[in-house]
Amino acid sequence: MNSYKISKLQVTNFRNLNPDIVTFTNGINCILGENGNGKTNILEAIHVLATKKSFRKNTSFPQFLSIDGEKPEIIFSSVIEDDQHQKHSYSSKMTNDSIFWYLDGAPIKRRLDIKVVFINPFDSYGFHNSASDRREWIDYFLSQLDEQYKKNLSKYNQAIRFRNALLSKKPSKYKEQIVASDGELSALSVALTGRRIDFLKEIEPYIGDTFQQIFSEKHKLQINLDSRIIGLSAANVHKVFLNNLETDCERGHTSYGPHKDDYVLLFDGLNSFDFCSLGQQKMSYLSLLFAYIELFRYKYMSFPIVLIDDVSGELDQHRWRRLVEYLEKREFQVLITTANEKFKEELDRISGANMIFIKGGSVIH
Ligand SMILES: Nc1ncnc2c1ncn2[C@@H]1O[C@H](COP(=O)(O)OP(=O)(O)O)[C@@H](O)[C@H]1O
Ligand SMILES: [Mg+2]
């Protein structure tokens, strides 16, 4: 797999950003500035260029488009560097209903597969408090690692939406159709569950390690799948769907399946949600993300671009210092934003770090 770093970015009509050229180094890039000036918007622009999507929920073109934009069109222009240190111009033109990609000046049919990982320490709260956030987290990262999982998940979600649509109408009329299509749903359920279990097994050795490397404390971290599908064959899962059909008809939706599964993060054997302080939860969450990046490297011999947003005073200075030291030792490209003066002091100590100051959507030199 090819991996990319971003060297330059210029956007036109994207949120509050002016079309300045922002230059990045291959190592640590710090994006500094007071709140509301456009730091997160820079990370978002890179995320959209790389994946078409934002990391903010329910956000697409209408939200991206600058309210002052003269034309309903966003242009992303960038210079990216590949594994062989070759630079390429890569750009995209986005409107409400279309998106075009250009590599070295020529149109391309499919966008490049630029991997990014977005990290916001505040997301730790959602991860610890909401099962659907946990599911989304795993699905998102596992999909980045495994194309087949992504395809199966999308098929499964489509099948569940269709099933629920039938269940919410007149189920008696559609029962036969539901039972028939539950065969495929069962096979997909088994495939998704198996892959989730394998993924957790793959990532587990890295979590405790990254925790120790970043925060110099030794803890055992584990993440387990809590699912009613574990160990069942597709035929048995099909039976459960059948047994639940009456209840599903009454409720008007599907009450069983991998879309209902959950994950438990264990901290020294105890549920991190109940047991950990908010700081420890945040540390565990960050360790999980960096464990994912390590796993990614192990699998593909390459790193994603790491976007870390809104590092603030939530962890104490000592912990942030450790995190910065950890980042300094890594080979990945990091873009890290902060409005926090104390954390800025930590970043100032990094030799060779690229400092980018943002004010009112512009780069200040
Ligand atoms: N579509 C848009 N057009 C113009 N400005 C926008 C748009 N969306 C958000 N903004 C502005 O972007 C700013 C927030 O930028 P953000 O990157 O989140 O700031 P921060 O530096 O705190 O990370 C706000 O001032 C907001 O008004
Ligand atoms: Mg921000």
Can you characterise this structure?
By secondary structure, the chain is α/β, with parallel strands linked by helices. The protein is built from twelve helices and 15 strands. The strands form three sheets. A six-stranded antiparallel sheet has the order 2-1-4-5-6-7, covered by helices on one side. Strands 8-12-13-3-14-15 form a six-stranded mixed sheet, with helices on both faces. The longest helix is centred in the middle third of the chain and has 45 residues. The structure holds adenosine-5'-diphosphate (ADP) and magnesium ion (MG). The site of adenosine-5'-diphosphate has 14 residues, from helix 1.
Q: Specify the overall morphology.
A: globular
CATH fourth-tier homologous superfamily of the largest domain: P-loop containing nucleotide triphosphate hydrolases
Number of helices: 12
Low-confidence stretches: none
Trace the largest sheet across and list its strands: 2-1-4-5-6-7
What structural class is derived from the secondary structure elements?
A: alpha/beta
| Helix and strand pattern | EEEHHEEEEEHHHHEHHEEHHEHEHEE
Q: What is the CATH architecture descriptor of the largest domain?
A: 3-Layer(aba) Sandwich
Termini Cα gap: 36 Å
**What is the percent of helical residues?**
40-55%
Q: How many domains, in number, for the residues?
A: 2
Question: What's the mean pLDDT score?
Answer: 94
Largest sheet: 6 strands, antiparallel
CATH class of the largest domain: Alpha Beta
Unique bound compounds: adenosine-5'-diphosphate, magnesium ion
Number of strands: 15
Amount of beta strand: 15-25%
